[in-house]
């Protein structure tokens, strides 16, 4: 993996840990936001593996769908997770306090963990391939 891909996956992992800590402390809104960023960084790592870099969140999300979900390189449900997670982040960051109930935040965190795991496994398989 390139240093950029490695760094982005590390940031994704740290974001997952932060999301878990925030969720355990009762901060569902902020846990959802960190879970989104975990997915976002993992998506950026995947795009970096193809030499792609974007300056907006919507461009990263669209490119992930085009480059990985649509051709079936990764499960298309991951793209749906990323789209839904962006909305959850916006609600968590800009909505009313406690807009994200703990059980919703826990579900979002599970999806983020699945997304990051899939990205990590994909990039490691690609690295191991001749």
Structure commentary:
This protein is an all-alpha fold and 130 residues long. It has a single domain, classed as Four Helix Bundle (Hemerythrin (Met), subunit A), CATH 1.20.120.330. It has 5 helices and no strands. It is globular, with a radius of gyration of 14 Å. The protein starts with a helix and ends with a helix. 40% of the residues are buried. The model has no long low-confidence stretch (mean pLDDT 93).
Order of helices and strands: HHHHH
The CATH class name reads Mainly Alpha
- Bin the strand percentage: under 5%
- N- and C-termini, Cα separation: 13 Å
Mean pLDDT: 93
SS-based structural class? mainly alpha
Largest sheet: none
Detail the poorly predicted runs. Answer: none
Helix content: over 70%
Count of all domains: 1
Count every beta strand, where a strand is a DSSP E run of 2 or more residues.
0
- Return Rg in Å: 14 Å
The number of distinct helices, counting runs of at least 4 residues, comes to 5
List keywords for this structure.
130 residues; mainly alpha; Four Helix Bundle (Hemerythrin (Met), subunit A); 78% helix; 0% strand; globular
Summarize, please:
The protein is an all-alpha fold. 78% of the residues lie in helices and 0% in strands. The protein has helices at 3-24, 28-48, 57-69, 76-94, 102-128.
């Amino acid at each position: 993996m390139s240093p950029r891909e490695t760094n982005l996956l590390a940031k994704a992992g740290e974001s997952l840990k932060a999301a878990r800590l925030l969720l355990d402390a009762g901060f569902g809104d902020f846990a959802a936001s960190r879970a989104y960023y975990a997915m976002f960084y993992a998506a950026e790592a995947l795009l970096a593996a193809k030499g792609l870099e974007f300056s907006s969140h919507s461009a990263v999300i669209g490119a992930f769908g085009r480059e990985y979900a649509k051709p079936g390189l990764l499960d298309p449900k991951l793209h749906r997770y990323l789209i839904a997670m962006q909305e959850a982040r916006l609600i968590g960051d800009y909505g009313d306090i406690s807009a994200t109930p703990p059980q919703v935040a826990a579900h979002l965190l599970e999806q983020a963990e699945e997304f990051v795991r899939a990205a990590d496994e994909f990039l490691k398989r690609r690295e191991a391939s001749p």
